[in-house]
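The records we work with from here on pair a chain with its fold. Taken together, the tokens spell out the fold as the letters spell out the chain. To see the layout at work, look at the sequence and tokens printed below.
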Amino acid sequence: MSDQDEDAPAPLEPRIAAAVVDILVYVVVLNLFVEYLPQVITETFTLSLLTAALLKGILEVVVAAKNRVKARWRAATTPIGKVIAAVMLWAVLFGSKFLVLEAVDLVFGARVSLGGFWSVTLLILALLLSRAAVQRLLQSHRVRVRPERPRRGSGE
């Protein structure tokens, strides 16, 4: 093995890379909201970065809960089971906005404000749509991180 192979960095775990990209997308979207919606406030860029990381964590939990409830709705065989699952889905989606508002207030206090219910709803939709768009863009233009090297003894 050559010295160059030994010094090459280990490949990055795809889930970690995706999480970093998500946070960077969230920072951009959050700062656009700060710029254009007066009720959305972060005192510093560092706080917006930390808020984006907090939002990433919260939204991962909310999306996981939503997916579990959707699976429960699909598995329901009776009308009452479907109705209960639909009410649970509504509760997760509606309640998640208040979870985000309270978590941000608890962690950052008055230094970060996401406004009220409607502004945080719009923010969450923008975050999730932007995340999906960037993921689709990256998947459709997948770039090799490490170029293939010719094999030894293949005459290349």
Notes: Confidence is low (pLDDT under 50) at residues 144-148. The beta strands are 40-42, 112-114.
